[in-house]
Every structure is written in structure tokens, then in C-alpha cells.
Amino acid sequence: MIENGVEAGASPSAEQVARYRARRGFPANPARDSDGLRADLVEFLSVFRRLNQLEQPRPQLRYADRDAGRAPRPGEDPYNAIIRWCNVAGAAQGPLGGLRVGVKDNIAVAGVPMTEGVRYPTEIIPREDAVVVERLLDAGAVITAKTSVSLADADFGVTRNPHDPRFAPGASSSGSAVAVATGLVDAAIGSDQGGSVRNPAAYCGIVGMKPTHGLVPSYGLAYWDHTLDHIGPMTKTVATNAALLEVMAGADWRDPQSRWAPRVTGKYAGALGEGIAGLRIGIVEESLVPAGCTAATLAAFDRASERLRDQGAKVEPVSIPLWADAAAIWLAVLTFGLVAMADSNGQGYGHLGRIDVDRLATVAAQYRSGQRDLPWLASILPLAYEYLQETRLGVDFGIAQNLRLELRRQVGRCLDQQDLLITPTATSGPPRLDVRQSEGFRLADYTRAMANTTPANLTGHPALTVPSGAGDNGLPTGLQIMGREFDERTVYRAGFSMEADGGFAG
């Protein structure tokens, strides 16, 4: 009998036991021969046979009327923002009543295929909604699209910047940003592990929020690393962004993260009109020239800083020494975390959240058949992991984690003295697509692009990007506003002030 891809009644052969021992590097032990070890293993596996006989609890869908939809027709989506149109309506009334929302296609909407940007032969069709999807539907929103995951996808076309299609829209919540900017949806949600909400939001001239780690449940996301994963709203205005976060925020019993976070929500939209007079705002010096910001980016940032001063904020430089090395720390953390996620078939270890067993089995089958690879730097990360494990015993993960904690302390000390921190969201304008595709991977490009966004993923602090006028090639720039943990309301205060002051126009 096969259950969840496992032959529940089978017993391991002597050859299998020998192979497992060799793979794990078990030393030979004359006192414990293979036959005795196999007999003990067979007895122990009875625990798992019993597990497969127990009924699996499954949350019930609250909204069963679902149209899984179709791919866009020619001309409907000129910038390749949408992977699939769909229609899933929620409550008849609510604070988001009738709002058309796009969902990044690595976040589960039950009954709608979830591609993660790749046409796998074995399709993932979730049977459960992600927590954020459930909450949006409860608030009256309508899920109308699954949005592109990557900026240049061989399976679904190249996603292009709506302000100039020769340029990239940012990665990897590119489709969500483009769909909002072009009005294909009223709002969207994206995922942010190193800047993937904020970077495309900045490049496309919209608002994007990476909340405090654990504030928004990540259950239903195609995880990268539970310590880096965030889900956040992407919108045209700060008010809509704050309204979505109010709905999405708060702990959930299924989540691998929110159990560790305080059980709080906020009335973020109430920050509208409060102003920023008297707020202490620190400019992170290491986020400017040391991060590799272009002259046009620095000019836009200076104009944004002056707007904040003009509205009564006290804006002054601060130093966070490890900021300039955050991208390197982040890559080291991700190298170990993402490989561990792959080894657990996309679920991760050491958390108390629910496991979507159907998705686990499908992902495991994709790995086993060679369909699936790691989603980013797929040819490099696992090779780096194996080399570091073999030659350095994996100690680099410990070094990176300790540096991460020091960065967190440095940011925390600054926020003890300042109410907010500001940086350019991206260090330069978006790259041209033809240049990016012809040159391939360059480590310096990745670290520079993520220089100012990865710190907030490493530390967990909230970070909002709002448009701050034109930069390189006349394309949008973003101002990143960081705050204390679970103080999204103050972050939104500054965002509202930028919006009211015309900061979006430059």
C-alpha cells in the first residue's frame, strides 16, 4: 500500500541498511552486525506504519466556489506579470470588500495550480489556502490572479518594467509589482527573503512592505528559510498597503514562525495624518556610497531626506558597521538554510507549524524524478554547501549566524536612539534586460542589488519602500523606511508623510 508516496508496509533490505550506514558515515561495529541493526530498524519503523493509519486533520476551505481560471491571452498582459487569471471570491462584505488581489505564484490558493514559476510535469495544486489568502478572503477581497515569480522566466516569458520594457522590474515578486503598477490588480502580495517585495516595488514605483519577522504567517508559502521568509503587501498607495497588513497580521496555529512572535496586530491605517514632526530618523551611512549607490540614486535619496526634514523630523546620519557586509552574511545563511529546506522537501526543520503533507509528497517526487532544483543560484548553492561541509566542517554557517546576531544588535542599538532608519531601497536603477541576460550571473551584481534590503531580512525589522522620484534612466527609485520590531505603525507614519508631500513624483 502506498500512502503519501511511501510504501507503508515495507521493510528495509540488508542492502538498503548497508547503503544508509555508508551514506551517514557510520563506523563498523563488530558488536552490532548488519542483521541485528536491520532487525532493530524494522521494529522501529512500526511507529511510522502506525502514523500512516491515523486520520490526517485538514482545515476546511471557507470559500469553496473557485474558478481556477486560465493563462493570459495574447495582448492581455503585455509585461508578463500574470501566470494565471483566476477568481476566488471571499466574504460578501469586509474592510477589503471587492479589492482585486494578485497572489505571487509561490503562495498557495486552494484549487489553483501553484507553479513557483516553473512548468513542472508533476503539478502542485494546493488543497489548502495560505493563511494570508484565507485572511484576505475573510476581509472581502477577491483573488483574481497568480503573479509571476521571476523577472526572466523561460516558461512564462520575461517580466518587464512597465515604465520602460527594456528594463527589469526587479526580483522576485516581479509580477506582483508590475500587476499593481499597471492596474491589472488593485493590490498584490509577494514574498521577501532578501528584498523580493521591496526591490520590485521600488523599481516599479509602488509601495511594498516587509513586515516584522513572524507578524504575518508564512504558512502556504514555498519556503526558502523560516528565519528569512516574509510575506508582505504591494500596493499603489500607503493607505491600501496599511489596510492589507492590518488584515494579514497576527499569529496562526499553523505557522512555522508566528508562534515565536508576540500575538499583536496593529491599526496601521490610523497613522494617516499623524505626521512625523519630532520623529528621530537616522540615515544609515553605510547604505549610501559604501553600498555602491549611483549618483542618481543618491540625489533622489537626498531629496527624500529633505522632505522628511521639512515635515519636522530630525534626520541625522548613523553608523551600522556590518551593514556593508549584510549581503555576504545573507548569502552564507541562505546557502545552508536553502539546502536544508531542499533536504526536507520544502518544509524545514525545528518548527511547530503545520506541514502540508500533499505538497511535501509532490515536492519530494519532483526532487526524486529530477524535475526540481533549488530555486535560486541552483548550480552554485548546493555545490558551495558540499564544499564547505567537506573542507570546513560547516563552520561558516556558525560564523554567519553570529555575525547576523551582531548586525541585529547594531541595528537595535541605533533604533534605541532613533525612531526610524532610512536608506535607498535599491542602490541603482533596474538593469537592462538584454545586458542581464547576456552577461549571466555575477556575484557583485547580486550583492550590490541586495545591499540595502538583506539587513532587514537578517534582523527581522519591518521595512517599507515608498517611491522617491526618478533615478537612473528616469526610472523610479524607492526610499526604504525601517522601524523597531512590531512598530509598523511608526513606519507607516513616515510613509504617509512621503505620500502626502508628493514624494512619489520626485
What does this structure look like?
The structure is a single chain. The chain has 2 domains: 2-51, no CATH class; 66-500, Amidase signature (AS) domain (Amidase signature (AS) enzymes), CATH 3.90.1300. The protein has 16 helices and 16 strands. The chain has helices at residues 14-24, 34-44, 46-51, 131-138, 174-181, 198-204, 238-248, 295-310, 326-343, 357-368, 381-392, 395-417, 433-439, 443-449, 454-459, 488-500; strands at 2-3, 6-7, 66-70, 82-89, 100-104, 142-147, 152-153, 157-158, 187-191, 207-210, 231-235, 280-284, 314-318, 420-424, 463-470, 476-483. A hairpin with a 5-residue loop joins strand 15 and strand 16 (476-483). The radius of gyration is 23 Å and the shape is globular. Residues 1-6 have low confidence and may be disordered. InterPro entries: Amidase (IPR000120), Amidase_CS (IPR020556), Amidase_dom (IPR023631), AS_sf (IPR036928). This is Amidase. Residues 90-491 form the Amidase domain. GO terms for molecular function: catalytic activity.
Tell me the layout of helices and strands.
Elements: E1 2-3, E2 6-7, H1 14-24, H2 34-44, H3 46-51, E3 66-70, E4 82-89, E5 100-104, H4 131-138, E6 142-147, E7 152-153, E8 157-158, H5 174-181, E9 187-191, H6 198-204, E10 207-210, E11 231-235, H7 238-248, E12 280-284, H8 295-310, E13 314-318, H9 326-343, H10 357-368, H11 381-392, H12 395-417, E14 420-424, H13 433-439, H14 443-449, H15 454-459, E15 463-470, E16 476-483, H16 488-500
Parallel strand pairs: 5-6, 5-9, 12-13, 12-14
Antiparallel strand pairs: 1-2, 3-4, 4-6, 7-8, 9-11, 10-11, 10-15, 14-16, 15-16
